[in-house]
Structure formats: structure tokens, C-alpha cells
Amino acid sequence: MASALSDSRVSAEHIPVKLVIAGPFGVGKTTIVSALSEIKPLNTEEVLTQAGTLVDDLTGVSDKTTTTTAIDFGRLTLPGAVLYLFGAPGQTRFQVLWDELVRGALGVLVLADTRRIDESFAVLDLVENAGIRYAVAVNHFPDSPDYPLESVRKALDLDPRTPLMVCDARDPASARASLIALVEHVRELVLS
Ligand SMILES: Nc1nc2c(ncn2[C@@H]2O[C@H](COP(=O)(O)OP(=O)(O)OP(=O)(O)O)[C@@H](O)[C@H]2O)c(=O)[nH]1
Ligand SMILES: [Mg+2]
């Protein structure tokens, strides 16, 4: 992590910003941190074990072989700001890390999967209870139903001002657009 903090791309003029990427199990958090990060991301992936099948619901993500057991960490420098990206673990048994993870964070990008929309509720509850600003990005998989965003907004009971977009977590441009929508949203709220 030392190299992430001492790099010629980051200067004293860059405001350090902590952002958290959250969402249910297997929604693409590790993938989006990897797509966004300009440094080699720190991952804490462990192989999913047979014992875990009792608690890890693989519905919709049956090809998944690993899971994040602590955090993902990456960094993205924008003009004037350096974003430190913390990917949360997706499984509910790791929620004990949540309070520490969101401490000092400017906002949360919540990833959602329209194949398993109800699994986003627990994460949205955590974010809202923490009183932290957020945006929602629907990570689109090949077999994801194509619901209009207004239906997704309604299903997730989102405030009309909360940014909601579709993204491809593997695509750096798409991932970056989601993150920038979050940062812009937080900026507008802070300035209003
Ligand atoms: N087709 C497609 N596959 C994706 C996309 N994003 C992620 N994946 C795949 O979905 C699987 C799960 O992605 P991860 O990034 O590990 O998900 P995660 O949210 O970090 O998972 P946990 O940490 O276990 O909660 C991986 O096999 C990814 O390659 C996407 O946008 N499209
Ligand atoms: Mg992960």
C-alpha cells in the first residue's frame, strides 16, 4: 500500500477522497475496483469452499470460484482529487467490517444485479443507516433482465435524486462514469 501513497501522479494539490464500493455477494465489486484502479489493486480473494455452499448463495453467480474476505483496495487520480477505493466484502457474515470501512468515506457506490434485486436491500439499509451519500450502478450480466431504470429505482425505493445507472464493471470507462456520477452527486449535496 505504501506505493499507492507515494507516486508521482499524486501531489499535495490532490484532495484525498475515500470511496466505498458495496453490493451483494458476487455483484462485481472486486471487478470494478480492478477496472478503475491505476495501481495494482489489493485483493483479498479466497477460494469458495464446499463448506461455504451452506451460507454462500451462488444463485445467478454459479461460475464464481472465489470471494473477497476482507477488502479490495485501488486508487484513481482525477484532476484535483485522488480517489482511494475500498471494495467491501459481499457476504453478510463480513458485515462486522462495515463501520470501519465507511468511516471517513465521502460516498458509497452500491452495485446491484437485476437478476437478484432483493439482495441489494441489506446493503442499501447499511448505507442509509450510516447516513452516507451513495449512487447505485446496475452491473449488467449477459442474462440480466433489461428492466427500465425507472422500474429499478422503484424496486429499490431510491430517492429521485440518487444517481442510478447501468454499468459494465469490467469496462474502465463505464466503471469510471459510475464513480464520477457518485462524486458529482456528493459535490452537489455538499455545495447545496
Ligand atoms: N458478464 C459480466 N461478468 C461480470 C461483470 N462484473 C463481474 N463479472 C464476473 O462476475 C463474477 C463476480 O465478480 P466479483 O468482482 O468477484 O464480485 P464481488 O462482488 O467482488 O464478489 P464478492 O467479493 O464475493 O462479494 C466474476 O467472475 C466476474 O468476472 C460484468 O459486468 N459482466
Ligand atoms: Mg469481491
UniProtKB/TrEMBL annotation:
Entries under Pfam families matching the protein: ATP_bind_1 (PF03029)
Domain of life: Bacteria
ATP-binding listed as a keyword: yes
Statement: the UniProt record of this protein carries the keyword GTP-binding: yes
Keywords from the UniProt entry: ATP-binding, GTP-binding, Hydrolase, Nucleotide-binding
Protein name, per record: ATP-binding protein
InterPro entries per record: Gliding_Motility_GTPase, Gpn, P-loop_NTPase
One of the record's GO molecular function terms: ATP binding
Family classification: Belongs to the GPN-loop GTPase family.
PANTHER family, A to Z: ATP/GTP-BINDING PROTEIN-RELATED, GLIDING MOTILITY PROTEIN MGLA
